[in-house]
Amino acid sequence: MAANTFDLEDKESKDVDERRSSRCILFFLFILKFILFLAFLYLFICSLDFLSSAFRLLGGKAAGKVFQNNEILRNPVAGLMIGVLSTVLVQSSSTSTSIVVSLVGAGLLDVKTAIPIVMGANIGTSVTNTIVAMGQITNRREFRRAFAGATVHDMFNWMTVIVFLPLEIITGYLFHLSEVVVDSLALEAYADGKKDFLKVITKPFTKRIVQIDKKGIQKVAQNQDVDTLLKTCCKSKTFQNFNETFVNGTSYTLPSKKICVQECEYIFKDTTLSDSEIGGILLVASLILLCFCLFVIVKLLNSILQGNMRKVIKRFINYEFPGRCGYFTGYLAIIVGCGLTILVQSSSIFTSTMTPLVGVGVVSLERMYPLTLGSNIGTTTTGILAALAQDADKMRNPLQVAFCHLFFNLSGILLFYPIPFLRFPIPLAKFLGKETSKYRWFAIMYLVCMFFLFPLVVFALSMAGWKVMAGVLIPIASLLVIVVIIKITQVKKPSILPTKLQNWKWLPICCRSLEPVDRVMNMFCCDRCTSIVDDSDSDTDEPESKVNGTNDQEVTHV
Description:
The chain is mainly α. It has helices at about 1-65, 70-75, 75-90, 95-105, 110-125, 125-135, 140-170, 175-185, 195-205, 215-220, 275-305, 305-315, 330-345, 345-360, 365-380, 380-390, 395-415, 425-440, 440-465, 465-490, 510, 515-525, and strands spanning about 235-240, 240-245, 250-255, 255-265, 545-550, 550-555. The protein is about 65% helix and about 5% strand.
């Protein structure tokens, strides 16, 4: 009997030791995974920097030359589309906005001409997180959520432009509002400065690969000759009253002279490759690095965020204030998104980092939306800082443009956020996410059409004149409005519609479904490139509860 008791005690002690050791192993594995997550997140952010550098080398000069033609830019629609295309080319709204601000400061653009361009820059910057969302294309559910989380930014920017560009053309409210604000400021009291906290972390690595002269594109826009956009001098010194002695012994005192005292050192510095060739290499390498890092990050997140850990983090991020205060939770998210974007000085990096979290289901689309809105506000600080970097006597107009950018985003938020019914970008993003989960090629088609073909077509129509553009776009826009109204009525109150309009079955299938296009795509692509057939995965996620005071509510995903 005593022997059995000792055996039981030994067995229990062994079980306790095994549980302790297993907990220690799990803890160390968690720490290791978290460290790996941070490491690949760092590389992911660096890949975005390389991607931006690649696009600047490939299209930076072209983007700069676009800004030279003032006659084209005076057409507000053309200016809008140039803002979109130039921002897509340089992969940075901060860069394109800074170019516009510097041109206004140099007197090459007036404020009214610059306003549509910064509106277009708002749209172009959202292409990065749309590209990032495609990194989760292999998983239907994650891809649907990630693509919706990325395109909610697109939808907000496009809808804000559709509403406020015509209003600005008719009334000039942004111009007049910013003029009042700038006139009330004592501009001489402001000093230039810029804090870019994220660059402090990533620059030690990225600067060893490639360095871009940020002022190069601005010089091209100002019609100055620029041989390369690569940075050659990292540190220069200005010598005052520079003395020069010639062979005949004559000495002259020359004006101040700027001399490079430290040349830049990086991998692509001494190559014989052109900017375009280096940009192409960087583009391929950065996309490979981005996709690989995104793949590993998603796998690590799925591994780390399991069981109770996943539920706790999800509840914390998607937490709603209790009771009636829950309405104000989104505004706190806007402030958080704004603050984080100011810290990293890039809305693209912030939204691109959040997109995978939406994909794995940690952040809901409803929470991503206000974070994105806050990011839109935060990114306007770059233009304000660029304006403050101008000379005091030239600061007024650039600062007015920067404030126009800020008030434009605030106007969109005031229209499309306070009233839940008017948060149209969310259902539109859900629709796009659903379509991409059915047809993978739709994501690529959306990317090409929304950020390249559509801006180019509208730009061409605007160049043909207002009558031609109105004759083409107004009927199309009217048809879309009618279709949307009928669709909403079909969902909300179909009984008031004629029997035939209560559904779209009377239309040919090519007018109400992408299946015919999908069949054509199947002829040219493999199955992995086209529709996703996965009967085990439903179109909607199972509802998951979240903490909201004392009541349980559902977190609605895409």
